[in-house]
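This entry is listed as follows:

___
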Amino acid sequence: MRILNISAQKPDSTGSGVYLAEMVRCELSAGHAAAVVAGVDAADAPLLPNGARAYYVRFNTPELPFDVCGMSDVMPYAATRYRDLTPIMARQFCDAFAKRIARAAADFVPDAVICHHLYLACAVARETLPNVPMAAVCHSTDLRQMRSHGLERDRIISAVRRLDIIFALHEEQKREIVERYDVDPAKVTVVGTGYNAQEFSPGASRTSAERDALRMLYVGKIGYKKGVESLIASLGLLAKRPNVPHVETCLVGGHSDASEYERIVHLVEACPLPVMLAGKLAQGDLVEAYRASDVFVLPSFFEGLPLVLIEAMACGCRVVATDLPGVRPWLEAHIPDAPIEFVQPPRMEGVDEPDRCDLPAFEMRLADAIERALRAGRPAQPFDVSALSWEALTARAVRAMSEIVARNAG
């Protein structure tokens, strides 16, 4: 097939950007033709898989004189919050995407379209190409936007209802999609997430027994809502406990809030256990960071279906993660007996805003889980997550789309 992939965000940043890029890579490797419409900054030169045709919507230009819109309110690059779009900015956004999508359709002539996020660019795509078979992948941040404010709400809901199929990350998310957009449950298919099986594997890094200290890794945005401050607090609690294995922690990822990051830097400097802020890493260096670690930790207060958990297990890490809606059931269904310690999250006051009064108890639970994982060490055998590869995910999605294309053609 000829598949047009659409995202309002940068295709080489954030989890949904990786999701899009990996799906495009797998579409091409399976023999399909692939094109991408994506939002980028004026000077960006995104890295797309070889063979993909690009139709970029460029921000910070006369056509769109503001930063790329971010599905999260805090992005790892300069971004405009959807809630801050004025009516004029929203119209500029929609006009620019409609123009680029129409151009891509005329030039590339897609058999099918896969949008990323059930949100504004998806609505524009459905309106612009009403007769082309169209799917959309939900990444949870779209649901969060719909819960948080009313930008173009009716327009988005109307367009989402007219999609041919919706791909959800897990069953809990499917239930929310059906409720939030009032769509037929039969239109929503759970496909999950994937990982790069060629890159992420245990490798031949030294075992923990060959090192002076155990190593723990975090990968994600360096920010409060990702639980980074609570993670550092939990390390302070661990340092006070007798006979706890000594651990060195590495925090990998970018940031966008300078004052928040400065606060985290001060917390890192004051932490009694060694913590390193590594910034963003190229994929090869990230793989080595996973392989060199014994425990991976994700203390986030909000996630869809975090790819980093799968990558970490593929590289041989034991995992500690917040027990967020939908994540545990999906993992238990697809990789039972996975080496994961789930931590009960704090009470929440909003979608991703924890009740600060409940954080000390959460940080104690997090410290307990990290201690258990450290004492257990790496899994005795590399954990097989190959069934969750991007190739397998893309094959499921493309098979569903091809059935719709064939049905429409008939």
